[in-house]
Structure formats: structure tokens, C-alpha cells
């Protein structure tokens, strides 16, 4: 597997997709339509998906794609190696112009997200795994043609009081009940896959998700967290969250920095 090329192409495509998304974001108005599952979709989702899918298919014609915006790709089964794409995670945040949305590209190998890129264009934050699997945050101009300054990321060692990150759009009583099992010192609120990235960057310790998600919602950020020393496990039995499941649907899960003593659900 040419990880050097995969990381280079994925990074560039994420930045290019982010630029396309921001063109729509800064436009005076844009249409919001409902998909078959009632989730919103915009021209930004579709433009980013088209750009990423075309770029990956051209560069890696032998690696299948599973992407949120192409329902036909969801019928693929038994894949051991594939790209997993959410071209615009956090469409609700995008529509409300809150900024917490991301471009997500992951490489899945044997059920594990081994490489990934998460780009938050409105926040100018870019997280990706390099060819060795180490997660970095890139700063500076974020030029698609040239990699700028990067810093390696490593999860923090949790203190006595935990920093817990939760969803802006999906917070509920069940999540609050579970979080209450921990000594919480600080609450952070973030949208989309950025919650994983905050743990990877050492800015948070724990993110429980007691709600429906799909694999494309989590794959790239899961890779980013793994590359920084973090973990993502199923909520029910604390075994690693895996990919390539039927209909690409996730169970409830917990993302965390090792050192957090996980409570039972």
C-alpha cells in the first residue's frame, strides 16, 4: 500500500473540497434539500463529494469508495480495503453557519481506519495521519500543493477531572446520565467529527456517543484519534469499533484518551 501517495492525495482533495464548500457557505443563499432519511443535503455536499470521488478514483482505481452521498456505494459488502468518505460532516452546522463542519476521508483496512484526514475549513483546522500513521495538525496557509508546518499530536494524560466533549446537535438525557458517571471538570461542545480531533489534540479526554451514526461520520476522525494514541470502542462491550459492518451503521461508542477508566453503560 502506497501510504505516502494516499496521504498526499487525500490531504489535497480535502483542501480542494473545503474550498468548494466555502464558496457555497459564503454565498448569499443556498438551497437545502432533504434526503430519503430526512437528513439535509446542499450543493456543498454534492460538489465536495464529486471532487473527492473523482480524485480518489483517478489516483487509486483499484480501491473501492464508500461515500455518504452515493447511495449505490452503500450496497457494497465484504470490502476489506476501501476509502470511506463524508464530504461534509455537520451539514446542520453548515446550514446554520456555525462553522463546525468537516471534510472527511479515511482508508479502511481489515475493519480498521488506518489513515485519515479531517479538515474544518471554516475553522482553518486540518488534522491528518502521515504515511507512518502518526497524526499531525497542519497550520499555516493550508496550500493544497504544498504541505505546510505540522505538529505531531498526542492525546493528553487525563487529570482527576475529565474534559468531556459532546455534540452540539445530538445531546440527550441518556448521554448526560452516562457522563454523570465521571468526574467532569470541563465541558466542551463541538460539532461533527471535530470531537474526535479535540481528543487527538490533547484538548479533551472523553466523547461518548449514544446515538445513531454511520461509518462515514466517524472513519477519518477515528483514524486521526488512533494516530494520536487514542481509542474508540463500542459502548456495549468496550471492544474496538470496526468498519465494513452491514449497511455501514455504527453502534453507540466511546472515544477517549487512554488513562480514562471507562464506566459501564
TrEMBL record:
Protein name (Swiss-Prot/TrEMBL): 3'(2'),5'-bisphosphate nucleotidase CysQ
GO cellular component: plasma membrane
First-listed, main subcellular location of the protein, grouped into a coarse class: membrane
Subcellular location(s) of the protein: Cell inner membrane
Alphabetized UniProt keyword annotations: Cell inner membrane, Cell membrane, Hydrolase, Magnesium, Membrane, Metal-binding
UniProt: Mg(2+) 1 binding residues: 68, 86, 88-89, 217
Family: Belongs to the inositol monophosphatase superfamily. CysQ family.
GO molecular function, one term: magnesium ion binding
High-level lineage: Bacteria, Pseudomonadati, Pseudomonadota, Alphaproteobacteria, Rhodobacterales
Catalytic activity line of the entry: adenosine 3',5'-bisphosphate + H2O = AMP + phosphate
Keyword Membrane recorded: yes
Annotated residues for binding of Mg(2+) 2: 86, 89, 217
A Pfam family this chain is assigned to: Inositol_P
Listed GO biological process terms: 3'-phosphoadenosine 5'-phosphosulfate metabolic process; sulfate assimilation
InterPro entries: CysQ, CysQ/Inositol_MonoPase, Inositol_monophosphatase-like
Described function: Converts adenosine-3',5'-bisphosphate (PAP) to AMP.
Residues where substrate binds: 68, 88-91, 217
Amino acid at each position: 500500500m502506497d501510504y505516502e501517495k494516499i496521504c498526499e492525495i487525500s490531504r489535497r482533495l480535502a483542501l480542494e473540497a473545503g474550498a468548494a464548500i466555502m464558496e457555497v457557505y459564503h454565498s448569499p443563499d443556498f438551497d437545502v434539500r432533504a434526503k430519503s432519511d430526512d437528513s439535509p443535503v446542499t450543493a456543498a455536499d454534492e460538489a465536495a463529494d464529486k471532487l473527492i470521488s473523482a480524485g480518489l478514483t483517478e489516483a487509486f482505481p483499484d480501491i473501492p469508495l464508500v461515500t455518504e452521498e452515493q447511495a449505490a456505494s452503500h450496497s457494497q459488502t465484504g470490502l476489506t480495503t476501501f476509502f470511506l468518505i463524508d464530504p461534509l460532516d455537520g451539514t446542520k452546522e453548515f446550514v446554520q453557519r456555525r462553522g463546525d463542519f468537516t471534510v472527511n476521508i479515511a482508508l479502511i483496512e481489515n475493519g480498521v481506519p488506518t489513515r485519515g484526514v479531517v479538515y474544518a475549513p471554516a475553522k482553518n483546522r486540518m488534522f491528518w495521519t502521515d504515511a507512518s500513521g502518526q497524526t499531525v495538525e497542519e497550520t499555516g496557509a493550508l496550500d493544497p500543493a504544498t504541505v505546510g508546518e505540522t505538529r505531531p499530536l498526542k492525546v493528553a494524560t487525563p487529570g482527576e477531572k475529565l474534559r468531556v466533549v459532546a455534540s452540539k446537535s445530538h445531546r440527550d438525557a441518556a448521554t448526560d446520565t452516562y457522563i454523570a458517571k465521571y468526574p467532569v471538570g470541563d465541558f466542551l461542545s463541538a460539532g461533527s467529527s471535530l470531537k474526535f480531533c479535540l481528543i487527538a489534540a490533547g484538548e479533551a479526554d472523553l466523547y461518548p456517543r449514544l446515538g445513531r451514526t454511520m461509518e462515514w461520520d466517524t472513519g477519518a476522525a477515528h483514524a486521526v484519534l488512533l494516530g494520536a494514541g487514542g481509542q474508540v470502542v463500542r459502548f456495549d462491550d468496550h471492544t474496538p469499533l470496526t468498519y465494513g459492518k452491514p449497511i455501514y451503521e455504527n453502534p453507540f461508542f466511546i472515544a477517549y484518551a487512554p488513562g480514562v477508566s471507562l464506566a459501564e453503560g
